[in-house]
Amino acid sequence: MTMTREFLLPDLGEGLTEAELVRWLVAVGDSVAVDQPVVEVETAKAVVEVPSPYAGVVAVLHGEPGQTVDVGRPLISIDDAGKSAGSGNVLIGYGTSEAATQGRKRRRKGQAAPPSNGVRPESVESAPQQALRVVSPLVRKFARELGVDLHSIKGSGPDGLIMRRDVNLVAQAEGHAAETGQAGQTRAAAGVASATPTSATDPSTGLPIASRTPVRGIRKAVAQAMSRSRTEIPEATVWVDVDATELVALREDLKRREPERAPSLLAFIARFALAGLAKYPELNTRVETAEDGSQEIVAFDGVNLGFAAQTQRGLVVPNIRGAHGMSARALDAELRRLAALARDGKAAPSDLSGSTFTLNNYGVFGVDGSAAIINYPEAAILGVGRILDRPWAVEGQLAVRKVVQLTLVFDHRVCDGGTAGGFLRFVADAVEHPGSILADL
């Protein structure tokens, strides 16, 4: 007896309530196995593949690519044809990797049955599809934008895994990276949806409208968070120029002696900021508002350190959980690991949420300073500008020093300027005299 099972969009975790359908990986009439990925969706945190908890034949696909589906709404209907459903591992990141290659399409009318040896007549085409080795949804998306067939690529990663560089090499060799493809790649790098050309005229300016770009996915999430931050948080900003000459010299010395283990300058500053938060815990809090309008300042026993990372999908904030107990070396390792996951689109929702204080290194963009927007609902964000050679007074004498600007944006509800200034001065002193501070950490 055939029974239709309706698979609802599962709870993706970390407070995510919706997802945008990017691409169906199956079609109506296809057979699917338990834990086989059936759809690629984009949330505010990442692009992920959702596995099916049921085995059977696809009956209905609820939605088209580009549509937004709420958690708990129908995603796909599957006729189980009397088959037993399996693992039920419907959370993102779960499911067997082999199951994705075990699905078989239902034989359509007029299609020859497969030979007894299990090889289908179209094996020349389908065998590479079954062996396709792609983990990152961003690689799939990159290949689509450049018009590259992933089945034609031999991956250079572990066990033949297809990497972004493999797609890029094929695109260059075959001439796929033409103007249209490059435009799509640029849009992807900006983290926005494809723009729709239009010939309409804007009534207020009288100028032709070149395009309209839907705000969705990561761009929508960023816009909502930033708007809420500016609307609800009465922020204030303090900044200071800092002589980082000794810190730069310290790192260069470590790099000479231990080239593979020398922490980055950002890791040192992160360590100083964590020490500052231990001294000024008011900045490691958040304000929560109850339904009756009353508010509480919630303090945390520990720090989850977020850091802003620019990716192809836009700005995300990975966070180092339990950062307060880590050394500069441990922080450096986590900064590199999480940044790589975010860039490759492999960061889990838990990696991209839950921070209690954020560090923003905008110096990598060649910027000296910035009044950053607080990462809602946190209470503060510390910005780090680029390090430049500048004239500086040292013991009454003019000298050229390595100078960096530190900027602290804070929620004025949790503390006053004295606390914010004290924290910033503490971090600045640590940057200027790292030896004495590191001796106490």
UniProtKB/TrEMBL annotation:
Q: Which cofactor does it need?
A: (R)-lipoate
Question: Which residues belong to any copy of the Lipoyl-binding domain?
Answer: 4-79
Stretches of Low complexity bias are at 178-205
In this chain, the stretch annotated as Disordered covers 96-129, 174-211
> What are the Peripheral subunit-binding (PSBD) domain coordinates in residue numbering?
134-171
Instruction: Identify the EC number(s).
Output: 2.3.1.-
Query: Which terms are listed as keywords in the entry?
Result: Acyltransferase, Lipoyl, Transferase
Q: Provide the family line.
A: Belongs to the 2-oxoacid dehydrogenase family.
Name of protein: Dihydrolipoamide acetyltransferase component of pyruvate dehydrogenase complex
